[in-house]
Predict the structure.
Amino acid sequence: MSAAVRAALLGLALLAPAVAAAGEGRLLATGGATQAEGAAGGGLVPWAVLAGYGTRDEGGGTAFYTRVDTGDYALHAFGVAYTFRNRLELSLARQRFDLGELQRRLALPWDALEQDVFGAKLRLGGDLVYTRMPQLSLGVQHKRLRDATLPLAVGARADHGTDVYLAASKLWLDAAGGYPLLLNATLRSTRANQMGLLGHGGDRRGGRSLVFEGSAAVLFDPGWAVGLEYRQKPDNLGFAGEDDWVDAFVAWFPSKRVSVVAAWADLGSVATLDGQRGAYLSVQLAY
């Protein structure tokens, strides 16, 4: 078991005693899951929802572990988030991208790339369920590579950068054949290559790109949801094209304390290797 996995499991275990205090004021599943960069939302896309189940008079938080495996590559992500009075979410995530097949083909001296993601999300207005307008949130994600030697060597301009995004989310309780329907749209300003794991900016394009991200989910049961996600990507590096990401997911919410998301993700071409598709699994504890 890797050090990253052990640290993630330890974080989940440390959170467990606090889970017994899970808030009762918000509906099951309305806290979402945890996105791969640490923000509340889906797997690939941050939503306007905030981490945990705390109401405006409470705090709430989450801890998560995520693994995506395409066969050639594997991504591990883990972290924590805390929301103050259903207004401000702060998050911290660590990502490890195992180079796998690329390391073997090119005999690279590195076996993985790692980065830290520091996030904040402010709810601007609206409510996911109880207002006619969607919930709107403004978020930032500051990303910093722990060793940028490889990304800088292939054309990245910086080892760190900050994404800014605006998300709108709305849950209609009786919209999809009588089932609840959640829709989310996110606009992101970014220079990140492959979420920042290959640095920021590049020889092809150095400035910011405005990209779209979207999610749709149907709750067929209070504890089960199925959906799709799409994430548009910039294409900054000349040595390797970067494709948009999509996934199809199933989410299970046995209680407000636990959620499990399984998905099939299509990441397209990643660092010169095409057809990167594989399983996504994420576990979250919330309070």
In short: Confidence is low (pLDDT under 50) at residues 1-23.
